[in-house]
Specification:
This protein has 208 residues and is an alpha/beta fold. It has six helices and 15 strands. It has a single domain, classed as 3-Layer(aba) Sandwich (Rossmann fold). α1 crosses α6. This is Imidazole glycerol phosphate synthase subunit HisH.
Length: 208
């Protein structure tokens, strides 16, 4: 059974993520210990709340270093604020992030329109995710609806190495990236029922 280290750095809905991973078929350990992370087959970085707090907690627990080291040897997945942390900088407090993927985390523009009305911020609820790829991570769950709750979105620098998925909320924005052995999602698979469990199962079985 694939062992997934769920990284605990003081932010994140750990119980629901751990439970969803177990249902999807993983052996889960919730940890911030370097030896646990090294022994795991795969890593999952959750995240909720403000980016400044998230980055401070990562540094305090050594999770920033652990994620970068893990990316050298094993698949890593990151969710919501975990996804945003992979970029260069966030407009939420102008916080420097991990700088793994070039780009900026931007706030939704309240001038964007949806159904002839200004969008509501934060973006909360179900929305479709479309990936223009046949990558195995999206098999059985592409073009499905996933659950979102966020006020900021990721704006990657165009790069042929990135496999992107998009969602429309007022305008089209990036809602997932696959890059080498890194898989990140703005939405919450653990809250997305069948499609979310299928996506997590694909990650558990993924061999980049």
């Amino acid at each position: 059974m694939t062992k997934v280290a769920l990284l605990d750095y003081g932010v994140g809905n750990l119980y629901s993520v751990a439970n969803a991973l177990k249902v999807a078929g993983a052996d889960v350990i919730t940890t911030d210990r370097a030896d646990d992370i090294q022994k795991a087959d795969k890593i999952l970085l959750p995240g909720v709340g403000a980016m400044r707090d998230a980055m401070a907690h990562m540094a305090e627990h050594g999770i920033d270093t652990a994620v970068k080291e893990a990316l050298n040897t094993k698949p890593v997945m990151a969710i919501c604020v975990g996804m945003q942390a992979m970029f260069d900088v966030s407009e939420e407090g102008n916080v420097p992030c991990l700088g793994i993927i070039p780009g900026t985390v931007r706030r939704f523009d309240d001038a964007w329109m949806q159904n002839n009305e200004p969008i509501k911020i934060p973006h909360v609820g179900w929305n479709r995710v479309d990936a223009d790829t046949d990558h195995m991570l999206w098999q059985g769950c592409n073009h499905e609806y996933f659950y979102f709750t966020h006020s900021y979105y990721c704006d990657p620098v165009p790069n042929d190495q990135l496999i992107l998925a998009h969602t429309t909320y007022g305008q089209k924005f990036c809602s997932s990236v696959i890059w080498d052995n890194l898989f990140i999602t703005q939405f919450h698979p653990e809250k997305s029922h069948r499609a979310g469990l299928k996506l997590l199962s694909n990650f558990i079985n993924w061999q980049p």
